[in-house]
Amino acid sequence: MKNLVSICTIIFMIVGFLGCGNMEMSTESDDQVETRIIGESNVIFDKPVYSKDGVDDVWPDIKAYYEAQNSSAGYSSDGYHNYWYSTIYNVTSKAVEETTGVRLFDSSENLFVENNGKISAIPGGFINAIPWDYDKDGNMDLLIASYSGSGFLFLELWVFNTKTNTSESVYFERSSDRMLYAVTSEAPEDENNASRCYVHVVNMQYEIEEIDFDSGVIDKADIGKMTDIEDKGLVGYIEYKGGKFVFEDYPWD
């Protein structure tokens, strides 16, 4: 059974054009409340496409990854394989595939990056990914947005280096009001800086699919597929400068 669920309380940061005007949003830390200024905008983001294309190619490596995780935690993997397989979808965008040759597979718990026949896992729920030659070495890499948690959400931006097959967490934040981040390479209208990626707040919509399993371990599960992204405004940018990643809140000088 499928139901279209509008996730109005979950907000994501995505990179895009800067519009005019501001609005305020509060985020709480352990010891203070800070006000985040958000620039209004109207960016149109690509809707994600979920498919099973290529899943069978990477399934042996993903299965081995999950089995190793269970084994290290002292758990058996018996009965979980059908569940793991059912949650994996190819979410590679056209821009990522054509620019980097990388394929992305989302399992809701991890993002698996397939590059040159090798699989790497990035933890958390996948939001989006864009090509980004962050270090200007002529090799196009990936900037990836993800999240984890259920009450307080933990927001994270990752860079995957396609040359070295390594990933690095480049920004981390706890969101008390369930605001999430995502990324795009489009610059604001009044700025021309190709080295930056810009971050926007968005509303997400999901289609929830209920899947029944005859595994003896998991009887059923709800699998969410993102169906739409609505831009809610610019909040900052990320840049690689002086050998390190820098996140700058909006507005900047």
Summarize the structure.
With 253 residues, the chain is mainly β. It contains three helices and 15 strands.
Put simply, the count of helices is: 3
The profile of the biggest β sheet is: 5 strands, antiparallel
| Principal-axes shape call | globular
Taken as a percent bin, the fraction of beta residues is over 45%
**Helicity level, as a percent range?**
10-25%
Please tally the β strands and state the result.
15
How far the N terminus sits from the C terminus, by CA atoms, comes to 50 Å
Poorly predicted residue ranges: 1-34
- The Rg value, from CA coordinates, equals 18 Å
Q: Which class do the helix and strand fractions yield? A: mainly beta
Helix and strand pattern:
EEEHHEHEEEEEEEEEEE
Report the mean per-residue pLDDT as an integer. 80
Topology:
Elements: E1 2-13, E2 22-28, E3 33-39, H1 55-72, H2 81-87, E4 89-90, H3 94-100, E5 103-106, E6 110-115, E7 118-123, E8 125-132, E9 141-148, E10 153-161, E11 166-175, E12 183-184, E13 196-212, E14 220-241, E15 244-249
Could you list some keywords that capture this structure?
single chain, about 250 residues, mainly beta, 5-stranded antiparallel sheet, 4-stranded antiparallel sheet, 3 helices, about 50% strand, globular
What does this structure look like?
With 253 residues, the chain is mainly beta. The chain has a domain at 2-49 and 123-249. The chain contains three helices and 15 strands. It has helices at 55-72, 81-87, 94-100; strands at residues 2-13, 22-28, 33-39, 89-90, 103-106, 110-115, 118-123, 125-132, 141-148, 153-161, 166-175, 183-184, 196-212, 220-241, 244-249. A hairpin with a 2-residue loop joins strand 6 and strand 7. It is globular and about 55 Å long. The chain starts with a strand and ends with a strand.
